[in-house]
UniProtKB/TrEMBL annotation:
<dbReference type="InterPro" id="IPR004616">
    <property type="entry name" value="Leu/Phe-tRNA_Trfase"/>
</dbReference>
<dbReference type="InterPro" id="IPR042221">
    <property type="entry name" value="Leu/Phe-tRNA_Trfase_N"/>
</dbReference>
<dbReference type="GO" id="GO:0005737">
    <property type="term" value="C:cytoplasm"/>
</dbReference>
<keyword id="KW-0012">Acyltransferase</keyword>
<keyword id="KW-0808">Transferase</keyword>
<comment type="similarity">
    <text>Belongs to the L/F-transferase family.</text>
</comment>
<dbReference type="InterPro" id="IPR016181">
    <property type="entry name" value="Acyl_CoA_acyltransferase"/>
</dbReference>
<dbReference type="GO" id="GO:0008914">
    <property type="term" value="F:leucyl-tRNA--protein transferase activity"/>
</dbReference>
<dbReference type="GO" id="GO:0030163">
    <property type="term" value="P:protein catabolic process"/>
</dbReference>
<protein>
    <recommendedName>
        <fullName>Leucyl/phenylalanyl-tRNA--protein transferase</fullName>
        <ecNumber>2.3.2.6</ecNumber>
    </recommendedName>
</protein>
<comment type="function">
    <text>Functions in the N-end rule pathway of protein degradation where it conjugates Leu, Phe and, less efficiently, Met from aminoacyl-tRNAs to the N-termini of proteins containing an N-terminal arginine or lysine.</text>
</comment>
<keyword id="KW-0963">Cytoplasm</keyword>
<dbReference type="Pfam" id="PF03588">
    <property type="entry name" value="Leu_Phe_trans"/>
</dbReference>
<dbReference type="InterPro" id="IPR042203">
    <property type="entry name" value="Leu/Phe-tRNA_Trfase_C"/>
</dbReference>
Amino acid sequence: MTKLTADDLIYGYMNGIFPMADADGTLYWYSPDPRAVIPLETYKPARSLRPVLNKKTFDVRVNGNFEQVMRYCSLPRSEEDSTWISEEIIEAYTTLHQMGLAHSVETYIDGRLVGGLYGVALGAVFFGESMFHLVDNASKVAFHYLIMILRQQRFDLLDTQFINDNVRRYGAIEIPKGDYLRQLKNALFKKARFTEPTLEHLFKNHATG
């Protein structure tokens, strides 16, 4: 098999598939049915998160250290766990980031990266890939600002691929694969730019959900 490229990723996302690596690094492509998505209009921050947002506990940045976010996301969650983010995947997504199509939202404390997430933006779709946190609430705050950015930039679809307890807490639901592909096709034809807005503006308008 040839090496994974940024073009492979673009083609895959446009057709509803995405890669994950096995423990030995072998890449497989997935297209779940049903598909997990997070409706942008229904998300609200958890009540427990609102004091953290109001206190501005974290400094939030966009695309400040994309590759490092991926590397933190690639670390196994436990001794029994393995990672699906291989070096080949990191290299391909980093190239996609350099092309302006893959993005990270990061949280910092005293200049130290402590949480974040990354994904891919095509058309008016954001394909969420993974997140990490080194301190409590760090990834939750990053996700909150991701939602605010997607709303402000008029994205239509937030894909989270598989359902699990982590994405359920953010309001993820499952929809049939056919419905997802129809939404994907429509959203890909729309224009939306994942540009960094004034986060202070987002905070003032959306910290309380």
